[in-house]
Amino acid sequence: METKLLYQPFDKIEADAVAVVLFEDDAAPAELKFAAAWLDELKTSGEFSGKTDETAVLHQPQGLKAKRLVAVGGGKRESFDLRKAVAAVTRAVKQKGVKTLAWWLNGLDPEAAVEGAILGNFEPDQYKTANQGKSLDAFHVVSPTNGAELDKAFERGRILAESQNFTRALVNEPANRLTPTLLADRACAMAAESGLECEVLDQDRMKQLGMGALLGVAQGSAEPPALVIVRYKPATAPKSGDHLALIGKGVTFDTGGVSIKPADGMEKMKYDMAGAAAVLGAMRAIAQLKPSIPVTAFVPTVENMVGSRAQRPGDIVKSLDGKTVEVLNTDAEGRLILIDAITYAKRLGVTHMVDAATLTGAIVVALGNVNIGAFTNNEAMLGKVMAAARAEGEKMWHMPLDEDYKDLLKSAFADLANIGGRWGGAISAAWFLKEFAGDTPWVHLDIAGTAWLDDAKPFMAKGPSGVCVRTFTRLAMNW
Ligand code: BES
Ligand code: MN
Ligand code: ZN
């Protein structure tokens, strides 16, 4: 889709539809004077009064070049979410054959507007050869007055949303088309296009290093594992010496291993690499937006399979850190690959770490599909992550990690067990990671509930959401 920010008067806009936001308590903008009777009628009939989610369409509006005028209810100005509104209108009008949509900016934020259109235009239909969803060809944000700040914000929004869609397309790849090797290839292709360095540690190298926890998960699959490292370096290193690591769980398919999952719904486990994809999408955006802090992505990627070589419950593996882990449940594999990536990141000298992982079903029970579960060993660091998430409209909830939970991970035969029993499952999983993060400021984001939408929303297609891409990028930009 072509996206542009144009400086034009309202009546010169050429498009299949031009949308304008009307707030409940505000008078309609002067440009809509010609449609005053129509707006009055909408109000008295109760069809449209500017509440959120309301829309009204006027065909062949008098004196406009655009073919349709779409009035979009904004509700109260303070609580209006432009990104969501544009996405919902995009999804609605593209179904009706609209190919070019213009958005009268009217003082709102061009960044959120273009993000909404790009995100709303995405459909996970890359493998449909027939009946692909309809889509927009062009989206134009239109403002009567120009400004360098508007241009910058628009460009930022375009980069962020395109990177988020890059992540969504990657998450949507089925496991036969996205093995760990192919995920590593895609990461390095993205890096090459973006001017980033990419390095892949293969199985032999990981054996040499002693990444026993990661390799234990990988050994049941015919597909070899990889640890992908993508580096962004700013032109001048910051005085603080800070270096941010983004770490993403990249399980290209999670059968559960010998502790196998039920068949029902197992196909969804292709999205068990959504953390990895989010980290890579963020690196794609970071490469273009150039924050002043160095950022390195670490993507441990494996396929968790059953087979004669698969690890068994009760196996004891030695992590890169040196601690031994008793694998009481082979389905708790995400934490096993993440700890070796965390330890490796610390060895490379990162000073702060954030990980994203579809880690537990328990976080879905706790927070549903709305909030990301956030855990930390450092409140100040979490504050930064939460501020970035809030600014980007990604919801996040601070979960506890008290010392009292630590005993859940006791093992009779090794330093730690990889599961902590039935209750507080998202917390024991996070505690497991914390044992390896040590004193390095670290935030863990459990995105099992938020990385995939089971049902389409007015503003988003069913399937991969691309959550965390915008938060991670903003975190690096704000550092
Ligand atoms: N990938 C799953 C977590 C998951 C579950 C993601 C549902 C999305 C939806 C993870 O590897 C897993 O299997 N976790 C287990 C842990 C348990 C064995 C302690 C779980 O949550 O059931
Ligand atoms: Mn699992
Ligand atoms: Zn998993």
Description:
There is one protein chain. The protein has 479 residues and is an alpha/beta fold. It has two domains: 2-142, Leucine Aminopeptidase, subunit E, domain 1 (3-Layer(aba) Sandwich), CATH 3.40.220; 162-477, Aminopeptidase, CATH 3.40.630. Helix content is 34%, strand content 21%. Helix 4 (148-172) runs antiparallel to helix 8, helix 5 (180-194) packs parallel to helix 8 and helix 11 (379-391) packs across helix 13 (469-478). The longest helix is centred in the middle third of the chain and has 25 residues, at 148-172. Bound molecules: ligand BES, manganese (II) ion and zinc ion. Manganese (II) ion is lined by residues 254, 256, 331, 333.
Key words describing this protein structure:
single chain; 479 residues; alpha/beta; Leucine Aminopeptidase, subunit E, domain 1; Aminopeptidase; nine-stranded mixed beta sheet; six-stranded mixed beta sheet; 13 helices; elongated; binds ligand BES; binds manganese (II) ion; binds zinc ion
Helices and strands in order:
Elements: E1 2-7, E2 17-23, H1 36-44, E3 55-59, E4 68-75, H2 82-95, E5 100-104, H3 110-120, E6 138-143, H4 148-172, H5 180-194, E7 197-201, H6 203-209, H7 212-218, E8 226-232, E9 244-248, E10 250-254, H8 274-289, E11 295-304, E12 315-318, E13 324-327, H9 334-347, E14 352-357, H10 361-367, E15 372-376, H11 379-391, E16 396-398, E17 416-417, H12 425-437, E18 442-446, E19 452-453, E20 463-464, H13 469-478
Parallel strand pairs: 1-6, 2-4, 2-5, 5-6, 9-11, 9-14, 10-11, 13-17, 14-18, 15-16
Antiparallel strand pairs: 3-4, 7-8, 8-11, 12-13, 15-18, 19-20
Helix pairs in contact: 2-3, 3-4, 4-8, 5-8, 7-9, 8-13, 9-12, 11-13
The structure holds ligand BES, manganese (II) ion and zinc ion.
The site of ligand BES has 16 residues, from helix 10.
